[in-house]
Amino acid sequence: MLSAATVLGTQSIAQAQDAATTPRYQPEMVRALAASLGVSEKAAVDRLDRQDAQQDKLAELRERGISGDGAFFDASGRLTVNAGDQAEAARIEKAGLDARVPARGQAALDRIKAELDRLAAGKTPSGVVAWSVDLPADQVTVKVNNERGAAAKAFLAQAAEHGSAVRIVRGQEKLEAKAAIYPGSKMTFNNTT
């Protein structure tokens, strides 16, 4: 007759073995990240682990009342959090994350982008390729390949009213529908978690 401890012990070993063989990240994602960064797959997994740990720290900060106004990973994989003021930035940095006090931040940039979305509701002006929030640059970027049409001129004039918050990039190719997802990133839609 088997004791409960023997059965539970066997079950625990089986679960531990299953956990050990299940990868933390999809192998295809790891290979793609390694190739895009020009590093080994181990280095790619290490980077994903570091980024995950940084996101966990940010979640802890939010639980303690630090809301931040957007966050992004820089090219080296460090998480930078937009702080509302210098005191909040100091608390973020004390937790081990990079912080900055931006001129605008995520909320203001999202409002500008939403305004541009409304301007183009129904039909994107011919010649305007795309517009998006560029959080690291603290700007909304508008890409155009032809600004001669009346609709494009009107759209760009409205965008320019936001001054340095909007950057116009000319000479862009027309974009094809694609989705680029940074491997290992937690995904949110409409800035909800």
Largest sheet: 3 strands, mixed
Quaternary class:
single chain
Q: What is the terminal-to-terminal distance? A: 50 Å
| Helix percentage | 40-55%
Mean pLDDT: 85
SSE topology string = HHHEEHEHEEHE
What is the overall shape?
Answer: flat
pLDDT below 50 for ≥5 consecutive residues: which ranges? 1-8
The tally of strands reads 6
Strand-pairing-aware structural class: alpha/beta
Number of helices: 6
Q: Into how many domains do the coordinates divide?
A: 2
- The gyration radius over C-alpha positions equals 23 Å
- What percentage of amino acids are in beta strands? 5-15%
Query: Spatial order of the strands in the main sheet?
Result: 1-2-3
Characterize the structure shown.
The protein has 193 residues and is α/β, with parallel strands linked by helices. The chain folds into two domains: 27-100; 106-170, GMP Synthetase, Chain A, domain 3 (2-Layer Sandwich), CATH 3.30.300.50. 45% of the residues lie in helices and 15% in strands. It is built from six helices and six strands, in the order H-H-H-E-E-H-E-H-E-E-H-E. It has helices at 4-21, 27-37, 41-63, 86-94, 106-119, 150-160; strands spanning 71-73, 79-82, 98-100, 128-134, 139-144, 166-170. The strands form two sheets. It has a three-stranded mixed beta sheet with strand order 1-2-3. A three-stranded mixed beta sheet has the order 4-5-6, covered by helices on one side. Helix 2 crosses helix 3 (41-63). The protein is flat, with a radius of gyration of 23 Å. Residues 1-8 have low confidence and may be disordered.
